Amino acid sequence: MMKSIKTICLVGATAFLTACGWHFDNGAAVPAELKTMALESSDPYSEMSMAMRKQLLSNNVNLVPAKQGVPVLRLNKQTSSDKVASVFKQGREAEKVLTLDVEASVRLANGETYPISAKINRTFFDNSRAALAKSAERDVIWNDMREQAARQLINKMAALQHQVQGK
Q1: Which residues, 6 or more positions from 26, have their beta carbon under 8 angstroms from its beta carbon?
Q2: Overall pTM > 0.85
Q3: Strand, coil or helix: 167
Q4: Which of 104, 122, 131, 163 has its CA 20 to 30 A from that of 139?
């Protein structure tokens, strides 16, 4: 009896959630004015440029070549650093703080340019006895940080649009 009640509740909850029309809304962060834009960078094949392109495409932004009347997202500067946060008793580095700082600018179709930036910090436990594994782990962390910075830049583009409309 108890098992059938649980089954009925589970089926009812599933039917309720599927019937309410809730779904992920990709692209809601990017305003309509920025749905078609150009992406510029000093190195279009860098990891940050590729991460930014991937995030823009996943937000349903149509990327076109730069021309008059099209908004442009320009990746101006990317700096990365790692600082020692703690050390082992023997004096070797134990933990590092990885920092990624990305500066960009958005030039709207009317010619106005607005700076935006993203800063990401992560901690990384560095064990010199497993150097190869830690090197691969560090690469994964850096890639994740670039993806997160790209998402932050897209969110700031949406906030920028609200600021421009408020003028």
Answers
A1: 58, 59, 60
A2: no
A3: coil
A4: 104
